[in-house]
């Protein structure tokens, strides 16, 4: 009789199969924390689609033990994996408990800025704006990086998204600390 770990590992492998992916994803998500160890192993899977889907799963099932592995996915050769990792590290909406697990800015911020300026894929750079944008109210390096992308990135989509996070942009205004918002009125 197969163990729960073996079954979960087979579900992770199924993430690489077009017809089996949706069901495997739902089942892994349903299993929650029990599936996280196998999902973390899936980050090292040879198939890039499996690594991407494991990042997407960790977006909703993030645990502190997975932060370093998820951060390492920012160096993946496949742009879709880097995008999924960036999303998982930056998005609070997908997580049930937004305070449960936050990456260390001292480690992640320089890496996010490097991707924002140097990743060859414009979709990765666009997603990096969201991660760098997390620190726009607390770190001058984040503001400078976003302004540089807003002004210099070769992709119009990246320039537009970066403009949302720079001072005066819609996201910058919406995420401003309450004291700053009160003073503007």
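-> sequence recovered:
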């Amino acid at each position: 009789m197969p163990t729960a770990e073996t079954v979960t590992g087979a579900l992770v492998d199924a993430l690489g199969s077009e017809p089996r992916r949706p069901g495997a994803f739902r089942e892994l998500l349903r299993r929650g924390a029990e599936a996280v160890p196998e999902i973390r192993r899936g980050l090292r899977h040879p198939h890039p689609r499996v690594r991407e889907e494991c990042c997407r799963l960790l977006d909703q099932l993030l645990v502190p033990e997975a932060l370093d592995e998820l951060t390492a996915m920012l160096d993946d050769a496949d742009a879709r994996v880097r995008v999924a990792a960036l999303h998982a590290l930056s998005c609070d909406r997908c997580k049930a408990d937004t305070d449960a697990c936050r990456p260390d800015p001292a480690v992640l911020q320089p890496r996010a800025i490097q991707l924002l300026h140097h990743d060859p894929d414009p979709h990765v750079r666009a997603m990096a704006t969201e991660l760098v944008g997390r620190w726009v109210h607390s770190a001058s390096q984040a503001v400078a990086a976003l302004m540089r992308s807003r002004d210099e990135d070769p992709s119009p989509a990246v320039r537009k998204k970066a403009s949302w996070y720079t001072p005066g942009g819609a996201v910058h205004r919406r995420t401003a600390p309450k004291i700053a918002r009160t003073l503007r009125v």
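The longest helix spans residues 48-61.
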